[in-house]
Amino acid sequence: MMKKKISSSLKLSALIALIMVFVSCTDQQTWQLASPDGKVMVTVENVQPENRLFYQVTSRTDTGDIMVISSSPLGIEREDQQFIQGLSFMSASPVETVDERYILLHGKRRDCHDFSNQRTLQFNNEQGSKLDLVLRAYNDGVAFRYRFPEKDGERHTVINETTGFSLPENGVAFMLPHADPSNYGPAYEQYYQKEIEVGTPSPNRAGWSFPALFQIHNERFWVLISEAGLDKSYCGSRFKQEADNGVYHIRMPDAEEGGGIGDVYPSSSLPWTTPWRLIIIGESLKPIVESSMVTHLSPSSLVEKTDWIKPGRASWSWWSDSDSPRNYNRLLDFIDLAAEMGWEYSLVDANWQEHGEEKIRELTNYANEKSVGLLFWYNSGGDHNKVSEQPQYRMQERSVRREEFKYLNEIGAKGIKVDYFHSDKQDRIQQYLGILEDAEDFQLMVNYHGCTLPRGWSRTYPHLMSMESVKGGEWYKLVETYPERAPWHNTILPFTRNVVGPMDYTPVTFSDVKYPHLTTNAHELALSVVFESGWVHFADAVESYRKMPEAVSDFLKTVPAAWDEIKFLSGYPGKFVVMARQRDGNWYVGGINGEPADKPVKIDLSFLEEGEFDMLLIKDGETSREFSIENRPVRSAQTIELVMPAFGGFAARLTK
Q1: 589, β-bridge pairs
Q2: In what order do the strands lie in the sheet containing 82-83?
Q3: How far is CA 222 from CA 209, 443, 490, in A?
């Protein structure tokens, strides 16, 4: 499943990257690490007289080197000692070439190649304690993390990071305000603010969420910043509210998160390694959208036997009928829909336990007879949320959780959806990962809602199929203003939230449950391709899907939930996006328009193999609720031209 090689040998492809990797002078020490292609460079300086660490990131272009991240602070503070100033250089490891291939069972691509350079700088603080700064340089960006390498038998607490990211102030940003603590958050369910000036303060005291997207240097460069490799020893982090002079600083969770339960500051014994801070860089949006850096920086899979992990599509009753999980016959209807469509699963949402154990066994047996796996909803609480939806108090205490998982395994359930976490503190991170560890033992796949951001966990725990952490389709039921914002909101997500991991948006809703769509039906259909999730929950009503034209129904029967490859074709956040994804040699293309005016697009089919493909093209019809459908052969040398109407879209399937 995976081949890994880390070598100190100088490969020809990395030779340029290893030239001048170490430079020192009397008053200032400087270390550089270049990407394998030699174009991306991270430079670390130990600046005197304070002996403080700073870094910068440059990218080489045809016209010279471009400063992507200018001099930015590094440093971390524990409750017992600070590692911010007074740092003395001790050693620098040889540059290692990381050359690792691995497979993802679901995600933006199946076959992944982590190819980068790495080196570790070690410093002593004024008390003689050691701090490692681990650097990675990729062809599409850089990453770094801290490590306390010593072992002293004590437990320590990190109380501050001075880590910063200095962006050019003449750039613009696409950023998600982090929600202040509430009864339903934080859950990464805000709207992205688009094209705001770099350095703009967050409207919320809680700051800015990851990932953050920036366009800099007169629209020549794109930068996305996030984190990866988060484990039980740390908390989820984000940016502070203020970014004076365009410098964004890391901050910890709020004390009020999770109902005030849990410590704000993470604690661990030594040795101790923090999450990666990652910076993806591109001269266009293509490297941003297609990057796999988040999973590259995450630990390899801990699951040896994976034949029970199956990505797929699911019917979901709650969106169209909130009371349906309590209605046994309605649940049967959605199981029947999944069977008709060839979808692998049906989700049984909150309060299903009211049916009693005997009826739930009957329901599961009925579904299994139709080759439909059932997924069951759970409240993550616990006292860390005030939401009363049931089942509750079954996911926090490990012994109780394992008994529940044993029961689900016995009745033939395939997975769980766990909701309402409301905190990025270390105790919630431990709960997320504890659920995944226990779920593996009972061969249950997992989906998180009301949750934190993906940080590469789907590589380490491939049975983590998706995470919400997005203002998705459910908001058509909840907020009157959502429909008018959804068109442009949808076009930002492929460049931000969905870059870092699977996103359970619950797409493709043609009907209106409360607040009417402004997006067209073709726009909605295209979301099945534009967005990526290991489980795709098709949220509309049984009746809505059954009345769709045969070609639309056929498209929804065949569109995959796991992909072999991704190609970003065109777009701009907040305006439009066109995306192509491939599975088993067949390509699917989706495009959506986020603006209230027609958008002409050209689809260059050069990504296709040689030979002829049959193309099913589904576009907008005469009205926003109608389709225009055509079938014709195409070849890789062709370019398809079409017009997406206001808030419209299209979906295409190209089969060999």
Answers
A1: 580, 652
A2: 82-83, 76-78, 155-161, 267-269
A3: 18, 40, 19
